[in-house]
Each structure stands twice: as C-alpha cells, then as structure tokens.
Fold each of these.
Amino acid sequence: MKITLSLIKADIGAVGGHTKPSKKLLEGVKEFIAKKGKGLFVDHRVFFTGDDISLLFSHKRGVEDKKIHKLAFEAFKHGTKIAKSQGLYGAGQDILKDSFSGNVKGMGPAVAEIEFKERENESVIVFTMDKTEPGAFNLPLYLAFADPMYSPGLLLSPPLMKGFTFEIIDTEYLKAEKIVRLNAPEDLYDIAALLRETRRYVIKSIWSREYPKEQAVAVSITRLKHIAGRYVGKDDPVAIVRAQKIFPATEEIGGVFRVAHYVGGDTRGSHNQPLMPVKLNSPASVHYCIPIVQGAAFSIKNGVMTEFVDMFDEPFWEYIREKASLKSILMRDQGFTEPSMLPYDELEYGGIVERLKRLEKRFKIEK
Ligand SMILES: [Mg+2]
C-alpha cells in the first residue's frame, strides 16, 4: 500500500516573543484538524518546535494533494485568529498569502512530503528545525548518506554500498525548480562544493541507488524571503527521513546531529550559531534564539503511526547541548563582527541597509 507523509509547519504566533505557541492556539489547531479533516487522512500528529506548529499527516492521497494542503492552510488561518485574539507575537507570520491557491508550498509554511510503499518494518524520522534555514540540513544529511566516517552502514550494509542520489536545488532561481542530480560516492566533491553554499544550494531529496524508486529523504526548500520579497522570519525547515534496512540506521541519521554545526539563523535571522538538538515540543531559547532541531522517530503500518520516540531526549544529548551552548557563547562573544553576524546580503533586517546607504553619502575621496 502506498502511503504519503505530509509534514507542514508554520509560525502563526508565539507567547511573549518568538518562543512557543500558546496552549489555546495549539488546542485550537488540533480541534480544527480533528473536525475538518475527517476522512481525509489515516493518522496525524500536531506538535511544536520553538514558535512553529507542525502538522504531520499520513494519507493515501499522494504528494501535493490539494485537500491535505488546504486543510493545513485553513488550520493555520484558524490558528492565526486565535493568535491575534490573544495578542501573540508574530500572529500569522508565516501565512504570506490570504487565499488558498491549490498548494500550500509558496504560501509561507514549510512542506516536506514523501510517498512510499510501506516496507514490512517501516521506520521513519521527522526532523523539524526552528530559527534557521533549509541549508541547515545540508551537512547532517551529507554525513548520514555519503560519509562513511559518520555513517558506517555505507561500508557495512550491502543495500547501502552503491550509495545515494542527491537532488540539490538552486534556491536563487525563482521561476521554476532548478535542480541537479548527483550520485554519491562518484560525485562526492561536486556534492560537497554545492552543499557548502548553504544559503543557496539545498538538498531537496535523497534516493537509494540500489532501489532507485525508493526515496529516503524529503526536505522543505522554501525560502520565505523569496515568496514575500522581504524578510518575514527564517524558513525553519523540516525533513522526513526513512531509516533502516536499505537506508542508514536511525542511529546513523540521528548521530550526525552531534556535530551541532554552525548554521545561519538565530536572533533576527542574522547570525551564525550552532544547531542544538532539543527535546520535542521545546520552546525557542532566550539565549538569542539559538537554532534548534527536534527529531521524532516512529514506525508506521497501514498509515497508522506509533507513538514518537523523542530522539534527542536521552542522556547523551545533554552533553551535546552543553557543547552547542559553549559553541554558541564562543561565537556570540564576537558580537557584530563576521562570522558571528551574517554577511551584508543575508542580513534580514532593513536597518543595516539604510544605515550603510546613509553612511555612503558621508564618505569622501581624499588624495
Ligand atoms: Mg520559527
């Protein structure tokens, strides 16, 4: 049986700043979906990551299904009303268009979808990030699917030995999807050359080469500023990853997040800070909104999901959170100078642009 997983996430308002959604908002969204989504999906979950609410649906309607997307969009619009009624910060922030046009992609929310024929023991992980951008997935997914230093299955497990195909998007091209397909391991250096440019090139999907119809990964690739034409918040990406057997193991995919690598995002979307793995339903940190990632692993049968395993809720990750905290402080100590603050063309708030324009007039060429 073919099942589709649709993971759709948006920031529609948070309590006292960019922290987390209110209980009333979360409950309102849950109730809306339970009431309006009857018969549309097999199973679903609603949870939050920092100030973003995630909706995860399992269904039999395929990717980019109009009704599923509309349900998510309407749920977020309904939630926006609640957020506004409570005076929540950034109410409706990620809902960039007023009326639904058939696909929630390009309207603000982050979307990752994957359709597959369920394996006998189908293991899935969903990752949700807050205060960062889609390119934040580049390094961890490269390490998990292309680097035997991090992912021993590439050496040890026969179905993984042929490697994986990476679909990489050029997010600067706005008219259509500009995409390149590269194979690991042959094209490893080409893949790395693109993935290092995290603000432009992002992984869209990863596929098995042993079983070319089997998709391992789907990542949301939205860049909100391209939709709105101005800064409206960080993209806060999500990903769906299938694990085990013909794919890397759950612990290989989870393990790479121990790097706590530096990503663009953080407070005012304007800094390089480490990606901290946190527990499910964590608020954003008031230490400058350090970028965070949550991981939920589950099994699925006939579209029915088990309970989530909270991947970063065990003792090992306490140490990684300490490491990420230290990396955060060390970079933060550098204040406004690069690479602590992002380069000019990525500074998301207009103030610095206006300031530099004003200063330009005061420069004089002296001999
Ligand atoms: Mg957010």
Amino acid sequence: MIVDPDCIFCKIVAGTLPAFKLHEDEHTLAFMDINPISPGHCLIIPKTHFANVFDGTDAPLAAVMATTRRVAVAVRDALQPDGMNLFQANGPAAGQTVYHFHMHILPRTAGDGLLRGGHGMQAGDKAVIAGHADRIKARL
Ligand SMILES: [Zn+2]
C-alpha cells in the first residue's frame, strides 16, 4: 500500500487524523466530509494513495466503486434525500483539493441549486461531438 506522509487522507487511513468513519474494509474507507456541500456529504477513498483516476489501477478503483454503492444505499435509506450525485474530481480545474483519489456521495434536495444538471441545455454541434467521440475511441 502506498502512503504519502503529507496526505490528509492517508493520515485518516492511518488513524493519525480523526474522521467520522462510516465503513472500512481491506481496501477502502468511507467517512463524512467535514466541509459538507449538502447534508450527508461523504467520501470514499482507496487506502492506497494515488492522486486521481489517471494514476489509479483497476483493483482499488473497483473497490472504491463497490464501497460507494454500499454507502450510497445506506445514505439513501438513512437520510432519504430527493436525489444523489456521485462525483469525483481530477486536477485543480475540476475542483480537486485533496490529491488522494476520492469519490463524493452528495445527497441532493430538490431545487438545492448544486451541480446544475449533468449536461448542457442546448443541443451540441453533432460534427464536433462525433469528432470528439472518434478521438476518444482511438485512445481506448
Ligand atoms: Zn493519500
């Protein structure tokens, strides 16, 4: 397991920083975000340190997704939000502030105005969209 001694999430994994822990298993840890965007906002992390989706490998990322689902069901059942977003940020331009991969569970209330929509409100240029699809598929 990789540990970055300066990483606050690694310190939470090690138990040297406190957290409101929700779930822990061999590969993942889930805990409450202490600066919540909405009530019930929580985070799921791999225990091994890597910064983002580009640096992660399949096994810890799959473990994070499995724990995310488990915790999401519990959040839904416990708090009964109107909806829920799962999101994850890579790099400062995307809003990442802690450089240890983490998935957010963000319970939503109808009309809360957070994270407006998952897509644009106007139809995009189909040729541009197709071009982007071709460029992405060429890398898969
Ligand atoms: Zn870390």
